[in-house]
Amino acid sequence: MNASRWDRLLLDATLATFRGDRPYGLIEDGAIALQDGRIAWVGRRDELPGAPDALAAQVQSLDGALVTPGLVDCHTHLVFGGDRAHEFDLRLNGASYEEIARAGGGIVSTVAATRAAGEEALFRQSLPRARALLADGVTTLEIKSGYGLEPETERRMLRVARRLGETLGLDVRSTFLGLHALPVEYRDDRDGYVALVCDQMLPALAAEGLVDAVDAFCEGIGFTRAETRRVFDRARQLGLPVKLHAEQLSDLDGAALVAEYRGLSADHLEHLSASGIAAMAAAGTVAVLLPGAFYALRETRLPPVDALRAHGVPIAVATDCNPGTSPLLSLRLAAGMACTLFRLTPEEALRGVTVNAARALGLDDRGALAPGLRADLAVWHLRQPAELCYWIGGHGLLRELVIEGRSMAATA
Ligand code: NIG
Ligand code: FE
What we know:
Helix content: 25-40%
Bound molecules: N-(iminomethyl)-L-glutamic acid, fe (iii) ion
Number of helices: 16
Largest sheet: 8 strands, mixed
Oligomer: single chain
Strand content: 15-25%
Distance between the termini: 31 Å
Structural class: alpha/beta
């Protein structure tokens, strides 16, 4: 053939495409072709339009290995200074997350450590966390700000997030979370802080191209609906999509609020109400479930999975990687926990870390295996998709990661 032949053709693959009607969109004895960073062809090997060697410059047999879309972690706070291991101890001794937060621990203690860290230190501390996620199959990673709560540190966090992506060859999407906690210096001036976020920080950071989406923590220990609305209005003016930490510890009807703004996602949702679900369904807002936080906080109230299913709300699953409530460094384990703790099926959990996670970031060019999508693939030392949820721990399961057609890691 000529110059138009494919760059690479993988044969004898078990393909979990997440397209079509079959469970997992599974294609046994599959073939997948990559060209110029995109998927060029997907199907059964015996349907290939010619002899493999004539079709592609490089042909490789995978001996039946499982291939999935690269995983998408759509909710993390992985750039931060310090750690909060001591709070783990306090919680095991009976203190609640809210009590620790109200006593000056929690988010604001990570804020102090993050403000104190220079860009290099922040980068160096965050890099192993991003590497750990990548080593377990992640090719697109969302990272939130929100441990700076003043312009310089918020900027530094977002810059470090971008730099992690460039360094590791990952696609990082950065989310501005200025309304994460009230910084101590604004203790007596909530309104002043919300104004700083809406009128200065967000427009400036957006103008620098550092913001892909806007998030807030709508909660008793976070921000009210009215305050959340202010930052959403500003995001809308700037043409930025919104998402929300909603109904994690109580029901402030945040899901309906973010749905009103046609938000990408409402995240956590243990206390989600029936009306919140209906609003999300109508708006197409994704429900992002975060079993790591549920587990680490030893929560008992489950997100309303049956009702989300019944209303056809797309469900995603993410690590929520953060130092306080979810020090979780494996998206595959998050998917497994979504099965054991929240009773998702393995197929739902895996759709939740691929196609629905991409949707929660507003991305329709990934999360599945289909012609024209980005060539983001994970090749596993496994045969069946459910095994991705079934094995607990064990990083060496990833055989190769391909991001936009480039092979990133071969741990075989
Ligand atoms: O998603 N809930 C608010 N934000 C994080 C926790 C951040 C922290 O405790 O440092 C979450 O759980
Ligand atoms: Fe979070």
